[in-house]
Structures are given as structure tokens and as C-alpha cells.
Amino acid sequence: MRILFHKAIAMDWENHYLDKHTPWDKGAAAPPLLEWVDSNPGAISGKVMIPGSGKGHDGRALVEKTDASHVIGLDISPSAVASANIENGSAQFQSEVGDLFDLPPAHQSAFDWVWEHTCFCAIEPEMRDAYVEAVHLALKPDGELLAVFYRDPYDDEHSPGEGPPHGTTVEELRERFEGSGRFQILESYVPRASYDGREGLEQMMRLKPL
Asked: What's the predicted TM-score (pTM) here?
């Protein structure tokens, strides 16, 4: 599988960071991640990848609050990666410029966990099947995908078809992941903890590859 982000798309995300227009960055780790980690102490260990990792707040939280041995953030924006490594990087967490849809051999079947927060809703919906394949490729056979999906990101500024962000439904998630034959959903629920304004609009899922 080799589906590269178009250079113009990558530059658009880079320009957002250069212009300091990053409304998706809340300056703190995703509350649903913290809620899950607190409820499942010791569950996350080994090597973790975060696609679309931005400035690295989730990566830092995973290092501080789990038994992860190494966390790698992957982002197509060089400025986001630089900020992540300066603000949140450590010996256990580093970000790198990379394309989820063109994983190098070292990142294939390499991760015990993938944490999904902002990547799925940021890519174009027609790339979602390729996303499922890419995450499956990144995980070890006994790895797991932990994810929070933004089901309804629409407001006065964002309408369906005009994203990113692009919304989804539980039905679509089941069709994309379980319907592909590549994943089984182990948990699916609406998180109690969310960023302000996202209450009741997200779906938390834990999945294992098949």
C-alpha cells in the first residue's frame, strides 16, 4: 500500500502551524485518553504510535501515565513535529515527520498500540479505508488500536462536506473497521470526559487486529 498525502495537503497543514492557526490544539492531552488510562492502569505498555500527533500533548501524557516504553508521534507538518519535540519530547517520546500512508519498514508490524485522536477526522473521508489498512500494517499481530473519534464536529463554522474536520457515525466506524475484516471492536462508548464543547459528540473505541 502506498497512498501518499498530496504535497499541497501537507503544505496546508504546515501553513496552519506557521500561521499559529491550530484550533484543534487545546494545549493539553485528550480527556478521553486520560479517562481511559486512569480506568485501565497498566494496560498500555510497549511501543506506541500516534498518527497526526500535532504538538505532542497526547504523547507526553502516554509517557507520564502509562507503561509505554517508547512513543512515536507521526505528523506531516515539520513545524508541528519541531514544536512537539521542543515542548513535549523526551527520551521516551519523539515526533517525526512522516506519512501514515507510506510507513517505512521500521514502522510496519512494529507497534503494541496505536492511539488515534485527530488523524481520522482530518483526512478526506475517501481515504478512510486506506487509514484502516495503514493502522493495521503498523500494529503487531497482538497489538491494539485505542481511538477517540469525533462523530459530530459540525457547528457554525463547519458543515458536513466542508471539513476537515469530517464527522462520522458508529455505523460507519463498524463498517470501516469490522467490515474490512481487519479489526474487531472490543470497546465502544461515549466518553464522559471531553474537551469543552465536545461533550457527547465523541466515540471511544478499542480494537484489535485480525
From this structure: 0.93
